[in-house]
Amino acid sequence: MKQRLFFMVNKAKSLCLGLTVLLSLQIGYAAGKEILVSNNSELTSAISSAKAGDVITMKDGEWKDAVIDFKATATADAPVTIKAQTAGKVILDGSSMLTFTKPYLKVDGLLFKGGAIRKGAVLNFNSDNCTITNTAIIDYNPADFGAKYYWIFFSGNNNLLTHCFFKGKNNVEPVLGNAIEGARHNTVSYCYFKDIPYAKQNGREIMRIWGPGKLGKPSDDGAFFTVEHNLFDHADGEGVEIVSLKSNHNVVRFNTVRACMGAITNRQGHNNTFEGNFILGENRAGTLGMRFAGENLHVVNNYISNVSEKGMLMMAGEYMDKALTTDFKPGHGDDQTLGSPRYYQVRNCVIENNTIINSGGKGLHVGDSYKKRWPQMQLCLLPENNTIKNNLIMNCVESNVEITYPDTDPNTSYLSFIPNKFEGNVYSGGDAVGIEKIQGINKKDVKGAFDKDGLFVPKEIAGFKGVGADEYLKKSDICHPLQPKEVGPNWML
User: Fold this and answer.
1) Which of 241, 294, 339, 356 is the most buried (most CB within 10 A)?
2) What are the backbone angles phi and psi of residue 51, rounded to the nearest 5°?
3) 404 with 445: CB under 8 angstroms?
């Protein structure tokens, strides 16, 4: 009886202690105070003195030259937040910028408009587990186009940029970038990239995701970056690469690209996934679909329509074991070593259930850019050992499908490639080139209709099921063409 009573008393004590700890945690979070600040010096002081759970509220109005080093001490359960008194009414200009230098911090509702900085980034995630939401950067450009800086840069880990708006960047460097080292597991979601003007200058991607794998072979390390549920609308930049992956183990999914020059691109890196994206060219000049180089990629359920140029390109890779001619000029080497390829061979990838319709160039091209700029570049490694399955390609102007084969050049004729596997692919309304000896690419007269989103939905094709990108019909809540009202800050609706 005494033992039972002892157990019951101690159990009660444990429960009370647990409740006390839980209550103290809740009180600690709830005890965070709101601090209203009216100028830059008050903001700096508030950041220095803030406690975990505090909210620093910036008074509505113009904030000029607010260089914010956000270094408050916070915890995962009790972040410190900087927010606008009224979302969208705190306008930062001049040389204003914000950098996270400690973890577990949040920013909510700010507007950077009409200012400019000299270098770095307007918003810099230089720490871990930080969040920016409900925020916009508009026309934050230098007088000199050649002045280089990002609008957003990730140099920390596990950070989130969500429900933000970016418009009008017209200088050198991408809108958004991820560092080569020390930046992993970051996410950009539900953001709106609009009217980024075109300029013929390399290095003006909308997103450039560097990280481990940039110049290397497949490995377990990578950037682990996620780009999901974003809308790109006339976001041209350099006109070549919209989202450019240059690292391993990233995911690009459920994004919508409307009338943007360039393509979603796996430029470097391996083990990346592209799923459920909608690339709607709207017949605008300079629009493309997707372009890939690298290994172990998974490209599934993407819908590409009305791009003026090519639809989906599986690139030829660059041979680097030796110089095949005396005219070869390595892109990443020096006098002692050939270095790494400018484009890795497309190997061991899965390309399935994609729809490509009404492209102005080729629809699906296996071996694009073969021998381009030969012999200065050695793009002679054709895609091999890929699974290309259940894709629907229709009404593409040059050809629906084109398979490139090795030429008879003695410098490269000794190279051999593992065949790609084709299964259940259907093309309609145009020609296909190089498929004579291939099983699994089938010509059919495909009928169907356009749905409420303007997407082509085929009727059942005799002998084939689940062809094309039909995932948006199965999971329309998460996989559908995005509209402006679904992304960006809530105060812009």
Assistant:
1) 356
2) -105, 160
3) no
The CA distances from residue 152 to 208, 317, 435, in Å, are 11, 31, 45
Rounded (10°) CA dihedral 258, 263, 268, 274 = 50
Question: CA–CA separation, 229 vs 211, rounded Å?
Answer: 22
Q: Residue 384 in contact with residue 419, Cβ under 8 Å?
A: yes
Cα separation, 306 vs 323, whole angstroms: 40
* Residue 312 phi, psi (nearest 5): -130, 120
Assigned token pair, 279: 């690339």
- Maximal CA-CA distance, the chain: 94
All structural domains of the chain with their residue ranges:
1-31, 78-492
**pLDDT at res. 475:** 79
Q: Give the CA distances from residue 359 to residues 101, 399, 400, in Å, rounded to whole numbers and listed in that order.
A: 46, 9, 9
pLDDT range class, residue 280, cuts 50, 70, 90 = very high
pLDDT tens digits along 46-105: 999 999 999 999 999 999 999 999 999 999 999 999 999 999 999 999 999 999 999 999
Second CATH level (architecture) for the domain 78-492: 3 Solenoid (2.160)
Mean pLDDT of the chain: 92
How many other C-beta atoms lie within 10 A of the C-beta of residue 245? 34
DSSP secondary structure code for residue 331 in this structure: S
Structure-token pair, residue 343: 């484009």
